[in-house]
């Protein structure tokens, strides 16, 4: 996610909802009522039938999970849609209670830790974003279509899940909708079947993914293959036909970004990358696994447009392949993606990363010094202060240990934790094991102190 004081991928002009997400269980200290510790989901299979004009969804979610302790009730995060029935893998219908964004399913008998349970949830209704302190999250109608942007707690707006970032699962998503619409979801397109006035799109995501990164985009879109020669990654653009040329021009440097980031961070972590551009104006762009979503207003040929493209692309490494296990570690996503903007500027012949760092250091120094980067609190989770201080932390580390050691650490970081969940302790521990200089004091000041430290001198 990117933007100055980012707050969600709502359409420009839409009102922000209030109130934190509700649930039970544990998803870290910031959203303690999201998620459940009693099981781990291995796979979600979602079959969706959606009518754009009436905003009506009929759906079936098959959830394959493993108990981590004795389990008699399965508690799933699920918002406002109506549940018709829940069926166990052997065909038995189960008792359930659905209220306050929780679906509690009573098993016929307790299962022991290590046993598998497969639930089929049949549901329907008019999906809408879930409310949060950051605005509406999840399934949202466009002027003609749908976007899904769930970070951090919007996934239950459209499917029942264990909504916690430290539990990644594989996905199969099948969407049936009117044939004038194109569907984009995570993973590879396994097939499109046309029947009368409807089409069914099937996507398979074999790489484990956090629930908040699951997405469906529906719109009157055309698809354009982009050059991926420099970065060696298949790139695609999906947008309304009248937006394709402007979007292609705005994305003209994207292949070079993939190549640069591949050299600096390690190989691109997924099979392909798709950018979706809506006809609507959006407040900020947002990424999902293998996909990024931009509004038509973001497709501009200037530095601000270019940095947003670099930012969302960088999240494929930092956020999607390497995903925080606790939301307090958001700097591991946003600080790294913000620093990638500066690295792109430097690598493409623009301003150096050091120039950007010292500009932002001067700006942050004028602001209140009252937020701890490694634990900013839910109110400041997506504040631009966190993004920029996170990037400054990385620049300070780079200046302290030198480019060879710094980029070596980044490549080892993405290699060792590929497709895993990560923490601040994982990163600082890796750095300590890979560099000769003692950086404990640097991390203590930048990550756990409130006062903004001075940047080290740039090498001459």
UniProtKB/TrEMBL annotation:
InterPro entries: Aminopeptidase_N-like_N, Aminopeptidase_N-like_N_sf, Peptidase_M1, Peptidase_M1_aminopeptidases, Peptidase_M1_dom, Peptidase_M4/M1_CTD_sf. Keywords: Aminopeptidase, Hydrolase, Metal-binding, Metalloprotease, Protease, Zinc. One of its GO terms (biological process) is proteolysis. GO terms for molecular function: alanyl aminopeptidase activity; metalloaminopeptidase activity; peptide binding; zinc ion binding. GO terms for cellular component: cytoplasm; extracellular space; membrane. Signal peptide: none annotated. Residues 42-213 form the Aminopeptidase N-like N-terminal domain. Residues 1-28 are annotated as: Disordered. SUPFAM superfamilies: Leukotriene A4 hydrolase N-terminal domain, Metalloproteases ('zincins'), catalytic domain. It catalyses: Release of an N-terminal amino acid, Xaa-|-Yaa- from a peptide, amide or arylamide. Xaa is preferably Ala, but may be most amino acids including Pro (slow action). When a terminal hydrophobic residue is followed by a prolyl residue, the two may be released as an intact Xaa-Pro dipeptide. Residues 16-26 have a biased composition (Gly residues). Coiled coil: none annotated. Belongs to the peptidase M1 family. This is Aminopeptidase N. It comes from Catenulispora acidiphila (strain DSM 44928 / JCM 14897 / NBRC 102108 / NRRL B-24433 / ID139908).
């Amino acid at each position: 996610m990117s933007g100055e004081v980012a707050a969600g991928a709502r359409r420009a002009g839409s009102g922000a909802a209030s109130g934190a997400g509700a649930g039970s269980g544990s998803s870290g200290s910031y959203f303690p009522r999201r998620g459940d510790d009693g099981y781990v989901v291995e796979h979600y299979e979602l079959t969706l039938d959606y009518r754009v004009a009436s905003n009506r969804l009929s759906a079936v979610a098959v959830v394959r999970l493993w108990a981590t302790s004795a389990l008699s009730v399965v508690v799933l995060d699920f918002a406002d849609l109506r549940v018709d029935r829940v069926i166990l893998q052997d065909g038995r219908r189960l008792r359930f209670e659905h209220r306050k964004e929780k679906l509690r399913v009573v098993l016929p008998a307790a299962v022991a830790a290590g046993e598998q349970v497969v639930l089929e949830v049949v549901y329907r209704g008019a999906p809408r974003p879930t409310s949060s302190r950051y605005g509406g999250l999840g399934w949202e109608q466009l002027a003609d279509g749908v976007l899904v942007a769930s970070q951090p707690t919007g996934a239950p707006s459209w499917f029942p899940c264990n909504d916690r970032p430290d539990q990644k699962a594989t996905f199969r998503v099948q969407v049936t909708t009117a044939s004038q619409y194109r569907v984009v979801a995570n993973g590879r397109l396994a097939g499109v079947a046309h029947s009368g006035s409807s089409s069914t799109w099937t996507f398979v995501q074999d790489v484990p993914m956090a629930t908040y990164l699951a997405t469906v985009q529906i719109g009157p879109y055309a698809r354009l293959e982009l050059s991926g020669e420099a970065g060696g990654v298949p790139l695609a653009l999906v947008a309304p036909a009248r937006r394709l040329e402007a979007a292609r021009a705005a994305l003209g440097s994207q292949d070079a970004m993939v190549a640069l980031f591949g050299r600096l961070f390690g190989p691109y972590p997924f099979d392909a990358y798709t950018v979706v551009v809506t006809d609507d104006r959006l407040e900020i762009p947002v990424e999902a696994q293998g996909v990024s979503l931009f509004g038509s207003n973001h497709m501009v040929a200037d530095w601000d447009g270019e940095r947003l493209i670099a930012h969302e692309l960088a999240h494929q490494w930092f956020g999607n392949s390497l995903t925080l296990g606790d939301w307090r570690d958001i700097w591991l996503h946003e600080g790294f993606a913000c620093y990638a903007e500066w690295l792109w500027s430097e690598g493409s012949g623009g301003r150096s990363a050091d120039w950007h760092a010292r500009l932002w250091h001067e700006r942050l120094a004028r602001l209140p010094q009252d937020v701890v980067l490694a634990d900013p609190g839910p109110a400041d989770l997506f504040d631009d202060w966190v993004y920029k201080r996170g990037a400054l932390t990385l620049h300070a580390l780079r200046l302290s240990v030198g480019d060879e050691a710094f980029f070596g650490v980044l490549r080892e970081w993405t290699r060792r934790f590929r497709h895993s969940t990560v923490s601040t302790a994982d990163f600082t521990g890796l750095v300590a094991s890979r560099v000769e200089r003692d950086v404990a004091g640097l991390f203590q000041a930048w990550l756990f102190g409130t006062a903004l430290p001075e940047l080290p001198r740039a090498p001459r």
